[in-house]
Amino acid sequence: MAALSCSVGGCAAARGQVVPAPLGDLPSAAEAAPLSAPSTVDEVEVVGADPVPETAAARAFDLGFSAPLDPAKLERGRVAAEQVYADFGYPDTHIRVELVPVGGARVRVVARVSLGAPARIAAITFVGATAAPADLGRASGLVPGAICSRALLEDAPRRLRFFLAERGHVDASATVDPVTTGTREPRLVVRVSEGPAHSVGRIRFQGVDAPPPGALRLREGAPFRPTDARADADVLGALAPPGTNIAHHVAIDRRARRVDVTFARGLPDIY
After folding, report:
1. Which homologous superfamily is 199-265 in?
2. Is the pTM higher than 0.70?
3. For 33-133, where are the E strands, in sequence order?
4. Is pLDDT above 60 for 3?
């Protein structure tokens, strides 16, 4: 039996929405006839998967091996696989599905990928931040020309919070305005709430010998940086007897805009 090619066009679906293929793209009754007998799925093969992991695209079909082939589920899987590529920043991806007999009633599902051009960030506007836009862009990964993937957009607020926390803004937050699905050259708006900067307050030692002068990064009155507190815990651990666990407890005084840090033996890190 010759391979049956189910060529289905159309753009990638909007996130979370299954878009039926146009009727003109569906195989004719004559083409579909060879599948009138029940068939089972032997495997799913993705051809031309780069830059998306092949396993991610194949999982989107969710057909189940040795399961009966359901044409409607196959089409939903094709649409879902296209959405995987859109999430990676390739909204113009088209996937053509072929069913290749492998013996008996079993078929191999071959998904042939036509990638299309990626969506690249055209511009970024940071609203509410005092830091330089170039610094914010490098910290978040949101720079002109970068491929606009879902992972990049979802991770950017976390990276910005870390960047601002390192400048004493312990309550900073950031959000990226929604981007219209399929936009080829998105212009991003990132809204930042820095909150007041906090400085280092009192530094205490519980069950830990005070280190030599200048050994710690933290300085009372200097901007508080979480990485300094972690690094100082490591310094104290290196100075302590072997096997000693030194952790730190951070207490934020928002009214005084300061952060008190306590280093103690065996105390879990607390924020």
Report:
1. membrane protein fhac (3.10.20.310)
2. yes
3. 40-47, 94-103, 106-114, 123-127
4. no
